[in-house]
């Protein structure tokens, strides 16, 4: 298992390198640059600025300088748009925020979604099953950009219970609404997937075998049905996790959390090359780490996958 | 002495399209140490009879009649009471060993959990017993295979594991639902011999469910022929094979390819199995029966006779 993890980690390095190179050139292909504006700078100043950021060098030299700084100094360079800040600072400021509410959002989704799905499956076609199905549909027609304003209207303006935005160092009142607004539609999907997965598992012959042993229903559920039920949920959650902890642009903007999603949008508008690249690398590393985590979770559950890893 | 007595068992399933009549008024007994065969084509309700004995029918099933085990009605029992009988007193060997084992649990765990539950055996004592039973069903190198998962075994080995599972608590009755269907013929013979040994050594009763007449011929004293959930004929196996007295049984036996009787033809029973969506109004086999007369369609034939029974309104002498 360890060896597998190690091999996967080694294998991902060239992938990330390719990604950096492709992103680097794609960005330069787009018209404009960090210092173009409606009122052009005098050529002398422009030349000065370009020289300061190394933009006067040929592209391949820029690329090598960039890569060198990353691999030897873990330095993603200065921001082109925000004076006196570099990419490391921007990520260090924004990422903990999205990581925090993204993490709680994932907790919210799993801790509520799985039990909801289980209850719906065990009471198939009952009142609670219909409530769950109704909730799933509800959350699809109320995506987060509708849900978030509704929540602010209710909990901030009408009831005065929660602050309508801001972060304040990540106090819980400030985390609740971003986490819930971000997670609700995934919660419904997780509940739905859990429900159908559990129904399928409970109808399988090996559960009948377990029943024929005289095991109590509780033991059958926990010992025999739980693992196979969770497999599709894990598959579903893998990309969702990445999305959640890298933050939603909408959530960041609407709740003014100062999260990383906001930085991405700003950087794209201002052609802030180094910030865009830095964030792209962050996203791809996270995607890799979480995919690996999901694969390992799969291996932990499914012995067939486990024997395939060797 | 009668161990299990099935009395007027009927099983229906409620489906969106209406009621499916899977089993109609079936009665039979199994004595201690006896082997009873239940023969019929797929859809004849034979598996459902076995499942109903252990209370494992699907949720939409409705039953009537009685299944008396040592005088207690299994159909009337709560799941809690049934759980004390399942595996401990009556164990089932499921068909399809590919899907009857949990793919996410080791063989050892799947075997020792019923020991833990019914015998209170844990740790080394349980392991000992598991290895003993695995040896008994001739799984080679049992000791080193305890931590393997089902997918690491071949089909034949998995079937043996399923059988081992049923033997663990020395049950009084084993319901063997097509125990050899998934296997090739040589393994089939081994498994049948194994079941026979168990019956002899432990005085275990066996209900053998199969569509394979060859399996029945070698293994069972008594055979029940089922068609469309109804008993057509019941007789000692030898007598049944020597002179079948019901047109359906005759058709079945004629359909077994015989290498000596070389006329180059495969004999099938013409027609299709009946639609179980309707309650019986006549003999279910009548539409396919070569000997059917008008009366066959109008009355449901009673099962009559003493040592051997048949459900046919036409006298044996008049059959073709």
Automatic annotation (TrEMBL), chain A:
<keyword id="KW-1133">Transmembrane helix</keyword>
<feature type="transmembrane region" description="Helical">
    <location>
        <begin position="134"/>
        <end position="162"/>
    </location>
</feature>
<dbReference type="InterPro" id="IPR035906">
    <property type="entry name" value="MetI-like_sf"/>
</dbReference>
<dbReference type="Pfam" id="PF19300">
    <property type="entry name" value="BPD_transp_1_N"/>
</dbReference>
<keyword id="KW-1003">Cell membrane</keyword>
<feature type="transmembrane region" description="Helical">
    <location>
        <begin position="101"/>
        <end position="122"/>
    </location>
</feature>
<feature type="transmembrane region" description="Helical">
    <location>
        <begin position="12"/>
        <end position="30"/>
    </location>
</feature>
<dbReference type="Pfam" id="PF00528">
    <property type="entry name" value="BPD_transp_1"/>
</dbReference>
<keyword id="KW-0813">Transport</keyword>
<protein>
    <submittedName>
        <fullName>Oligopeptide transport system permease protein</fullName>
    </submittedName>
</protein>
<feature type="transmembrane region" description="Helical">
    <location>
        <begin position="174"/>
        <end position="191"/>
    </location>
</feature>
<keyword id="KW-0472">Membrane</keyword>
<feature type="transmembrane region" description="Helical">
    <location>
        <begin position="275"/>
        <end position="301"/>
    </location>
</feature>
<dbReference type="InterPro" id="IPR000515">
    <property type="entry name" value="MetI-like"/>
</dbReference>
<dbReference type="GO" id="GO:0005886">
    <property type="term" value="C:plasma membrane"/>
</dbReference>
<dbReference type="GO" id="GO:0055085">
    <property type="term" value="P:transmembrane transport"/>
</dbReference>
<comment type="similarity">
    <text>Belongs to the binding-protein-dependent transport system permease family.</text>
</comment>
<feature type="transmembrane region" description="Helical">
    <location>
        <begin position="230"/>
        <end position="255"/>
    </location>
</feature>
<dbReference type="InterPro" id="IPR045621">
    <property type="entry name" value="BPD_transp_1_N"/>
</dbReference>
<feature type="domain" description="ABC transmembrane type-1">
    <location>
        <begin position="95"/>
        <end position="294"/>
    </location>
</feature>
<keyword id="KW-0812">Transmembrane</keyword>
From TrEMBL, chain B:
<protein>
    <submittedName>
        <fullName>Oligopeptide transport system ATP-binding protein</fullName>
    </submittedName>
</protein>
<dbReference type="InterPro" id="IPR003593">
    <property type="entry name" value="AAA+_ATPase"/>
</dbReference>
<dbReference type="InterPro" id="IPR013563">
    <property type="entry name" value="Oligopep_ABC_C"/>
</dbReference>
<dbReference type="InterPro" id="IPR017871">
    <property type="entry name" value="ABC_transporter-like_CS"/>
</dbReference>
<keyword id="KW-0472">Membrane</keyword>
<dbReference type="GO" id="GO:0015833">
    <property type="term" value="P:peptide transport"/>
</dbReference>
<dbReference type="InterPro" id="IPR003439">
    <property type="entry name" value="ABC_transporter-like_ATP-bd"/>
</dbReference>
<keyword id="KW-1003">Cell membrane</keyword>
<keyword id="KW-0547">Nucleotide-binding</keyword>
<dbReference type="Pfam" id="PF00005">
    <property type="entry name" value="ABC_tran"/>
</dbReference>
<dbReference type="GO" id="GO:0005886">
    <property type="term" value="C:plasma membrane"/>
</dbReference>
<dbReference type="InterPro" id="IPR050388">
    <property type="entry name" value="ABC_Ni/Peptide_Import"/>
</dbReference>
<dbReference type="Pfam" id="PF08352">
    <property type="entry name" value="oligo_HPY"/>
</dbReference>
<comment type="similarity">
    <text>Belongs to the ABC transporter superfamily.</text>
</comment>
<keyword id="KW-0067">ATP-binding</keyword>
<dbReference type="GO" id="GO:0005524">
    <property type="term" value="F:ATP binding"/>
</dbReference>
<dbReference type="GO" id="GO:0055085">
    <property type="term" value="P:transmembrane transport"/>
</dbReference>
<feature type="domain" description="ABC transporter">
    <location>
        <begin position="4"/>
        <end position="253"/>
    </location>
</feature>
<dbReference type="GO" id="GO:0016887">
    <property type="term" value="F:ATP hydrolysis activity"/>
</dbReference>
<keyword id="KW-0813">Transport</keyword>
<dbReference type="InterPro" id="IPR027417">
    <property type="entry name" value="P-loop_NTPase"/>
</dbReference>
